[in-house]
Amino acid sequence: MMRSLSLTTRLALAFGLVAALVFGGAGTYLYRALATQVIERDDAELLRKAERVRREVAAQDGIDWQELRGVVSGNDEFGLLVRDAASTTLLRADAAGSGSGDGALPAVPPLAADAMLGAAAIRGWTDARGYPVRGVRALARDGHGRMLDYFLYQTGAARAQLMRAYRARLLLTGLVGSLAVAALGYLALRAAMAPLRRIAAGASDVTVRHLALPLDPARLPPELRELAAALQQMMDRLRDGFERLSQFSADLAHDFRTPIGNLLGQSQVALASERSVEEYQALLASNIEEYERLARMIENMLFLARAENARVALKPAVLDLERELAGLGDYFEGLAEAAGVALAVDGRGQVLADALLLRRAVGNLLANAIRFTPAGGTVTLRGYAERQGSAISVANPGPGIASEHLPRLFDRFFRADPARANSGESSGVGLAIVKSIMDLHGGSVEAVSPPGGMTVFTLHFPAQGEQGSASPGS
């Protein structure tokens, strides 16, 4: 039930509940304060009359019974019972309707004749009607030396009715006040929630083609400006993601179309007429090259997909940079010689990394560096320690990379040549794989290519104990 209520209704109900608690607490305090004050007032009146009874009994010229009865006459709440030492009733003036007779009064010891009448002498009980009664029983010596026992009491019927009416008014006031607070709170919250409704209405108009909130954050309350700004930033990221996805789809179709087109064209030409065994063998060899290229592309794409979902299991170990880079230099030495490029290797220190993934990342950078280095140039591979861990850099001379292309170098299928003239040599995901590998290690990769200078790619590995762990893959 509560889940189906709006936030405005929930908050309004919460306001009403808080108001009910506040009104209830205040009403309880006021009720008890008034009850205490009324009882204290009645007790003071009861003690004053008890003192008057004692004076009337002790009069030297004898008891004036009419005067003694006058102590309680005119007030239906008071009653008086006077008895002698033999428990003979000398005077009984009951409170109207109280039903308090000799047997109805509690058996309490009387106060001594010379004791002071105070609050401690007052006793309380309940009469036959359920009303509270408070009284004083004391001894008094009359003018002839007789010891008399008198019991003065007051019924609380009027007080009980007063407090009952007061309690009902407090309850009614608390209920009406709580409902009023809830209703006014609902109206105030509904007005306060209007900017949120505008944000929701604006968000409903957002589409893939129009990823922007039709709202001016400056016109929103300060508490909602941050929300609107965060939503707009999210939409900016979504727009960037949509653009990347669209570009990725186009690039993927382009790179898959070329080998598939080659396979299809060569096969159709071969089947158009009778061919020799050598020609069929050459066709199969060419097709195998295209299949291998497709297999590499699919394998790279699967690696990127698994890396993004943290399904690549890292097996980090402390590796010797000199040994690892020397091995990579030996592996790429033949490719460098074929391209007329020299390869210089300098590895020092250690790195905490997965050996296979490290070799793959550095290998991709070396392959790119050799491909773009002019004949006679030198590719430099260095490994060294830095303050926050270890680093591996690959530097090469060459045409360099335009500054506008640097931010997108590590995007999938991105190549600075929009015509993709060398699409047969590169799938465009090598640098994306490098970035994914560094993300798995909790590190980073950066590229620097100043005009006329060396193009340098640097892998930064964090120190031991600072790497983020990847979840094991299946």
Largest sheet data: 5 strands, antiparallel
Proportion of β residues? 15-25%
Radius of gyration, whole Å: 50 Å
Q: Which percent bin holds the helix content?
A: 40-55%
Structural class: alpha+beta
End-to-end Cα distance? 43 Å
Strand arrangement in the largest pleated sheet? 2-1-5-4-3
Count the domains: 3
The topology string of helices and strands comes to HHEEEEEHHHHEHEEHEEHEE
Overall average residue pLDDT: 83
Number of strands: 12
Q: Please state the overall shape, judged from the principal axes of the Cα atoms.
A: rod-shaped
Oligomer designation: single chain
Count of runs of 4 or more consecutive helical residues: 9
Q: Give unreliable regions as ranges.
A: 97-103, 418-424, 469-474
Subcellular location: Cell inner membrane
Catalytic activity: ATP + protein L-histidine = ADP + protein N-phospho-L-histidine
InterPro entries: CztS_silS_copS, HAMP_dom, HATPase_C_sf, HATPase_dom, His_kinase_dom, HisK_dim/P_dom, HisK_dim/P_sf, Sig_transdc_His_kin-like_C
Domain Histidine kinase: 251-465
